[in-house]
Fold:
Amino acid sequence: MDERQALAAFAALGQEHRLRVVRALVTAGPDGLPAGALAEAVGVGATNLSFHLKELARAGLVLSRREGRSIRYRADFSGLSELIRFLMRDCCQGRPEVCAPAIAALSPCCPPAEDTARA
Amino acid sequence: MDERQALAAFAALGQEHRLRVVRALVTAGPDGLPAGALAEAVGVGATNLSFHLKELARAGLVLSRREGRSIRYRADFSGLSELIRFLMRDCCQGRPEVCAPAIAALSPCCPPAEDTARA
DNA sequence: TCTACACTTCAACGATCATTGAAATGTAGG
DNA sequence: CCTACATTTCAATGATCGTTGAAGTGTAGA
Structure:
């Protein structure tokens, strides 16, 4: 992920409704949610949601796929992963003062990590 | 870090000049840089830089301290750390698909992490 | 105290963003 | 083909953001 893409991703997450959309989609898991359900979950109009979803897609944070007459959105886990990597490595230069506490706070659910990697 | 603060931090990093400022400050290390040097490093006018620095401070990403007639800015490592934690845990729910690759990409410089933690 | 310096605050502007209702697109079923 | 439905695109609006020059604040030294 280059700086340009990271900028787009940060800007995308720096908006209340969009951050909620991402969180809702992560919570929903790999299957994601149809746009209608998302609109209700986030509490935003259909037109407005569509605008934000396009922004999130441009930023590489969500994926979509038509399914019957609705369109199902899901979080782009690899995009989120790359963003975290950018923040830790390219931006913070892997400084232990920054990265170690963040990783430690995660240890209960996400131990050492070995073959799970598939960047 | 609550959602409100995370939003401010993401929005702050979603701007080219501000992202560059943060990267320059991280690179500069714990001593940081005086505003003048930052302005030159980032290639932005003094007035404009001051605006962005205030935004970054509000977002909890930089700290400042007067030093003679200049003001020295430095990255707020704990703020950056909390943002990464938020992104991994609160936003992505610690999903291994997301977190493991990001952590793995860091392993050369930032191994397992134990007593280093000081959230 | 006077001047120079480093930076910030203020006021103004154009540009981009978020939101809305109305119209268009695409899909499914009768 | 026609209607109903889910979502997007379009056009328009007010709000916020990024940038600039001019003026202000605070610090250091002669």
